[in-house]
Each structure stands twice: as structure tokens, then as C-alpha cells.
Write a structure and sequence with these properties.
3-stranded antiparallel sheet; 348 residues; alpha/beta
Length: 348
């Protein structure tokens, strides 16, 4: 019963096979190999758009390098206060960005609204006394397990662009969002106004494979050097490329995401039937619940794995003795584990 993170799941067999197949003979290093070129073209084709694609091994690298590339050191990056870049990346965006500032914004269910962005843009003294808003970063799916609709992204992007800001999307769980929306990758990104996407595969079942995708290749000028200087140009690059190609082959990435989403929906339904209701709508593969203390004790004693979550990140009204918790499903989550977890939570 491991619901700690989709990172805890193993690597998809097809991706392991692809890594093994890439481990044959010699290949030019540092991304100058045929597999890397194929992966870059495959990602551009996936999004139905000319794109500059940069493979990296971690989501933190993808986010930090993309944000640093889009914002000057005196810039302000508007993001949700609970976003991964603000709470879980050890200041990497600020470090790689030479001192740029993340400005965390409130928002119900992990989402920022145009009104919240408007209010943030109206604050501050302006140059030269304050950092200048330069970038809006959206997380899709969000840190609350919810999903922005394409219309919501488009409204935020239009506002950002009208005020001179670029738009970045942290897509560590982008596959889960696309699977939930039932749209194309293009519709969820550049068609809605996203300038740069951090496209994740690791949480979806890869070993270590992410990509920074610039939908205007001209804006990627210098990114190859930034990636190298930042220590994220892997010498044996073909192994990242092989993972990404296998992840995308025959729609595997969406099949894996649908499995994870379905497991989350099943778990939410089972918990709801036991009287334990999610704090926010379960739209992707994360569930946030406040567990009664007896349920938490039973689950922990049975070896269930899940993370306690900050109380202040939950809606108000959680009883003092309840345990705010995050549950994450993956492609590998078994129905039996879902049902056992729910039964233990119910006390049956």
C-alpha cells in the first residue's frame, strides 16, 4: 500500500527495455547522437509545433533552467504558494536564476486565478526598488491534484502576455492532466498560450527523463549553454532519449497516466464511501484527505505509506486531531492495495 508518491513506483518495463537496447555499441556523447535527435523531433511532433527541446534528468533541473532562462535576475516569478518550485526545489530556480524572486500567490485547490494575478501585478513600488514581474508559472496538474482547464490556462496566459510576462508550465504530471482533460498536448500548452513547458516522464514511469520544451525556438537561444553550465547536460545522453522515446511510443505515456488517474478515482470513491472525503476534487492522481486519528493509526500499523501534509495547506476546519495527508497513485497501483487501504481506513 504505497501511496507516498508516484516517484516510488518502479520503471515501466518498456522503458527499461529501451535503455538496454540503447546500451549497444558507441554513440557520440553530450546529446549529439541519433536517439537524442529522434527524441527531440518526437516531442515536437507530439505537440504539433516547431519546438526547441532540451532533455534533462530531473524535474528540478527542467523547472529551474526554464525559469532562469525566461526571467532576468531582477525578475519576479508569480506562482502558487504551494507550487513545487516554491516549496520543494531548495531554491533551485532562484539559484540558477541568479537571484530572481519567486512570489507565491494564494489560490483555492492549488489554482491561481486571473483576479489573483491582477492583484499581484498591482503591488510593489516598481523599478528600480522592486523585482519586476517577468514570468507566470503554472503547475499542471497542480500540487492539490486538480487540473486547470484549457480555458483557465488561456485566460491566465492572455493576462500575463498583456502585461509583458512569459508563461511557464511545470508539467511534472502533465500526462495526468492531459489524460484527465481528454485534449491534445497542443491544446493544453501553446494553443492556450504556454511559452515553455517542463515536460515530465519520471513520475509517469521513466527512470530519469524530463524535457524543457520551448514553443518559440528563438527564445531558446543560449539554452544549450545554460544546461551545460548548470550541470545537466548528461554525457551519455542517449539513455535519457531512449526513455523518452519509449515513454511516448504508441501513446504509452497517456495509458500510464490513465491507469494512475483511475486508481486515484477508485481510492477517492472507496474513501468517500467510508466517510473520508477529499479536500479538493480528485482530477488527476493525487488525493488529499484528513484522516481520523484511529484510521491513521491502523493504516500506519499495517505498513501503508503516505505523506503527512502541512495543515495550513488544507482548507480550514480540519479537526485538531485529524491527520492531513497526501495519497498519490501511480501506473503500478493495484486495485487490491486501493481496496485494502480504504477498508483499513474504514476500520473493516
Amino acid at each position: 500500500m504505497n501511496f507516498a508518491s508516484d516517484n516510488a513506483a518502479g520503471v515501466v518495463p518498456a522503458i527499461l527495455k529501451a535503455i538496454a537496447e540503447a546500451d549497444s555499441g558507441f554513440a557520440i556523447a553530450y546529446g549529439n547522437d541519433d536517439l537524442t535527435r529522434r527524441a527531440e523531433r518526437r516531442i515536437a511532433d507530439l505537440f504539433e509545433h516547431e519546438a526547441a527541446v532540451f532533455l534533462v534528468p530531473t524535474g528540478t533541473a527542467a523547472n529551474a533552467l526554464a525559469i532562469a532562462h525566461l526571467s532576468p535576475p531582477w525578475g519576479a516569478v508569480l506562482c502558487h504558494a504551494e507550487s513545487h518550485i516554491a516549496t520543494d526545489e531548495a531554491g533551485a530556480p532562484e539559484f540558477f536564476g541568479g537571484g530572481l524572486k519567486l512570489v507565491g500567490l494564494p489560490g483555492e485547490a492549488g489554482k491561481i486565478t486571473p483576479a489573483i494575478v491582477e492583484e499581484a501585478l498591482g503591488r510593489g513600488r516598481g523599478a528600480p526598488h522592486a523585482v519586476l514581474p517577468s514570468l507566470l508559472s503554472l503547475t499542471q496538474s497542480t500540487e492539490a491534484g486538480t487540473v486547470y482547464t484549457n480555458a483557465e490556462v488561456a485566460a491566465l496566459a492572455a493576462l500575463a502576455h498583456a502585461r509583458g510576462l512569459s508563461v511557464h508550465m511545470d508539467g511534472a504530471r502533465f500526462a495526468n492532466a492531459v489524460a484527465a482533460l481528454g485534449c491534445t498536448p497542443a491544446e493544453a500548452t501553446w494553443k492556450a498560450g504556454v511559452d515553455v513547458l517542463s515536460f515530465g516522464a519520471t513520475k509517469g514511469g521513466a527512470l530519469a527523463a524530463e524535457a524543457v520544451v520551448f514553443f518559440d525556438p528563438a527564445r531558446a537561444a543560449g539554452m544549450a549553454s545554460r544546461r551545460k553550465r548548470g550541470g545537466h547536460l548528461v554525457s551519455k545522453h542517449r539513455y535519457i532519449a531512449a526513455q523518452m522515446l519509449a515513454y511516448l511510443d504508441d501513446g504509452l505515456w497517456l495509458d500510464l497516466a490513465r491507469r494512475a488517474n483511475a486508481a486515484a478515482a477508485r481510492l477517492a470513491a472507496r474513501l468517500g464511501a467510508a466517510g473520508i472525503h477529499p479536500a479538493w476534487p480528485v482530477q488527476a492522481n493525487e488525493i488529499f484527505v484528513a484522516l481520523p486519528p484511529d484510521a491513521d493509526a491502523r493504516l500506519r500499523a499495517a505498513g501503508a505509506q503516505y505523506y503527512p501534509w502541512p495543515r495550513e495547506a488544507f482548507p480550514e476546519g480540519v479537526p485538531a486531531d485529524y491527520k492531513p495527508s497526501r495519497l498519490v497513485t501511480s501506473y503500478a497501483t493495484a486495485d487490491a492495495d486501493v481496496d485494502r487501504f480504504a477498508a483499513l481506513a474504514q476500520g473493516s
